[in-house]
Amino acid sequence: MTARIWTVDAFADAPFSGNPAGVCLLEAPASEAWMRAVAAEMNHSETAFLVPGAGANTFGLRWFTPLAEVELCGHATLASAHVLWTGGHVAKDRIIRFDTLSGPLAASSGDGGLIWLDFPSENGAPAALPEGIAEALGATLKATHANRMDFLVEVEGEDDVLRCSPDMVRLRSMNCRGVIVTARSSREGVDFVSRFFAPAVGVDEDPVTGSAHCFLGPYWGAKLGRSSMTARQVSRRGGTVQVRLDGERVRLGGRAVTILRGEITCAPGA
Known about the structure:
The protein is built from six helices and 18 strands. It has helices at residues 32-42, 74-86, 133-137, 158-163, 168-171, 213-224, and strands spanning 3-10, 19-26, 47-52, 58-64, 69-70, 96-100, 103-109, 115-120, 125-126, 141-146, 150-155, 178-184, 192-198, 203-206, 228-233, 239-246, 249-254, 256-263. The chain folds into two domains: 3-113 and 254-263, Roll (Diaminopimelate Epimerase, Chain A, domain 1); 125-246, Diaminopimelate Epimerase, Chain A, domain 1 (Roll), CATH 3.10.310.10. It is globular and about 50 Å long. It has an 18-stranded mixed sheet that branches. It is of the alpha+beta class. Strand 15 (228-233) and strand 16 (239-246) form a beta hairpin.
């Protein structure tokens, strides 16, 4: 059984921007230990593993960081859809459906090369941060919320998001996936900005985090009174995410660029 693998820059308009993801296309399910080893070897924030499903254009999809399996990942899902369409595994006019730990997800192609992901809305509620985390972030906090995966921290302005330099050792002790730091944007054409820190799962700072926008979208949609927004994750690489709210779902739009194609020589499950 072979295993083809790609590196794809997701939420990227050009190579070496956005968030690099590994995408591994399998003929049959592989062992969890093997997938963990491959994800650690790739050393991207997430590597996606795809297995053909029972239905047409349906795939099982799992995501691993270098340290752990995660329940939801946007950029590696976008990268997976890009690989399936550009590699001729699925016709470009067909919706791709994924079976995941977060339930059924879907990807469709849009105008201008956009890929649209249909994801669950991951709403949060006001919540106090664990002791010491505010100090670890080194920023003045306006509001703190939490959902089932992450904490969301709103700060005063975009400059505060850019200046944030967290103590990763202290953040690593948090009992959650990660911390989103966000503010209303001061740049034209962008509604809000964010950064995402997840050292507990082996990702000190994620360049562009699709799943975080399932939390950010409803949060800023309520504050701004909008259902359609443009977001910018202002990490060193950076990336733009289009956000559309639709009831209990969030649609995330972005582009992707293939950087590398290869084949894993160690057989899956070995």
